[in-house]
Amino acid sequence: MASAFQAIWESTGIYSLVNDPELLIKTLIMYVIVGVLVYLAIVKGFEPLLLIPIAVGMLLANLPGAALFHKDLFISTDPNFHLMIQDVINHGGLIDFLYLGVKLGIYPSLIFLGVGAMTDFSPLIADPKRLFMGATAQLGVFVAFFGALLLGFTEAEAAAIGIIGGADGPTAILVTKTLAPHLLGAIAIAAYSYMALIPMIQPPFMRLLTTKKERAIKMGQLRSVSKLELVAFPIIVVTIVALILPDAAPLIGFLMFGNLLTVSGVTDRISKTAQNELMNIVTIFLGVSVGATADAASFLSFDTLKIIALGLTAFCISTCGGLLGGKLMCWLTHGKINPLIGSAGVSAVPMAARVAQKVGREENPDNYLLMHAMGPNVAGVIGSAVAAGVFLSLFK
User: Confidence band (pLDDT; 50, 70, 90) for 2?
Assistant: First the structure.
């Protein structure tokens, strides 16, 4: 009987922690990080639909002895390593099967399908020159890329880190799972954390780079967009982008497919499914899978700190790039464009547009910038997918 109790005790996670002080310290640190993510999601309301699943995935991955996720089945530093589906079937568990959706690039594209179905592209169609602000808001992506190279990361790793500056979680995941899967936990958590903190990060830069007069600019009403334009836009965009950058086709293709489902007016049931049930299911699977990659052994490293710092830098510079693009457009149009909408050029839809609206109304209560900011916001989604396509074509 004593030997049976001894065997049970030695099989517990508590026994593992008690007999390995280093594991105990690292595990406790990971639990603190999990607690911070849950606090941001529940108390502060920052991206709860994603941060809670990610936190749960991290918690499950850091339960000593549970072995709920087997990273060695998917991630290796061996350049000749190949994913063996049969090994996952034979030796994998629940989270291993869920992670296949990340590894095979399924979840990011399905998320883009839902985003496309929920997004109104008419502000961008009504004023295509707002693509410029979406492009300038990708500045942080390339600054962070070169910064990562200077800090000793490989080109593929630097590309994965740089894409955080696009403020697009699914895009960051797609690039990272292809170019630097061993960094997926750190990059995904950095990307989604900074997306959640947009209301805190962006306003100081918006006030720093614009004047009170510029922030108070009241923009005119956008022209109405015909149904023909709404239907033609996604088809034209996906065709042009996919022909130039085939690696961007999965993201752009599903983004535009989702939008076409909505604007066509004849697939309401599918559009609503993409926006709600499918989006919610994939969000759960994606969050738990990504969170599970953040185990203590790989996450608690100096490289993670560098990634978090580079990600924040990229995000801030992208915000500044969009604002400077907005200021240039304001000057070129003789004050008809409020430069605040340039900050929405980062592709966090629609949160970045809402922040532009909030800051604009602080200076002019009659200001209504939300629909105007959606133009650069949508352009940023396209821009981040294009940046991802460039990185994948260069370093895959």
Answer: low
Q: pTM of the predicted model, to two decimals?
A: 0.88
pLDDT digits (tens, 9 = 90+) for 255-303: 999 999 999 999 999 999 999 999 999 999 999 998 888 888 888 888 8
For residue 23, how far is the Cα from the chain centroid? 30
Distance of alpha carbon 193 from the chain centroid? 9
Task: Dump pLDDT digits (tens) for 74-98.
Answer: 877 666 777 788 888 888 888 899 9
Tell me the per-residue pLDDT of 13-63, one tens digit each, with 9 for 90 and over.
776 777 777 878 888 999 999 999 999 889 988 788 888 999 999 999 888
Evaluate whether 322 touches 343 at the Cβ level (below 8 Å).
yes
Please write down the long-range contacts of 354-359, taking CB distance under 8 Å and 24 or more positions apart: 355/198, 355/199, 355/202, 355/203, 355/206, 356/206, 358/199, 358/203, 359/203, 359/206, 359/207, 359/215
Q: At what angle do helices 302-332 and 184-196 cross, to 10 degrees?
A: 40
Distance (Å, whole) CA 197 – CA 210? 21
**In sequence order, what are the residues at sequence separation of 6 or more whose Cβ sits closer than 8 angstroms to the Cβ of residue 22?**
none
* Backbone Cα Rg of the chain: 22
| 133 Cβ neighbours under 8 A, 6+ residues apart | 322, 325, 326, 329, 341, 342, 344, 345, 375, 376, 379
- Neighbouring residues of 295: CB distance < 8 A, sequence distance ≥ 6: 30, 61, 62, 69, 71, 185
Give pLDDT, residue 227: 94
ω before 350 within 30° of 0 (cis)? Answer: yes
The Cα 104–Cα 131 span in angstroms is 30
Rounded CA separation 70/81 (Å): 15
Burial 158-196 (b: 16+ CB within 10 A, else e): bbbbbbbbbbbbbbbbbbbbbbbbbbbbbbbbbbbbbbb
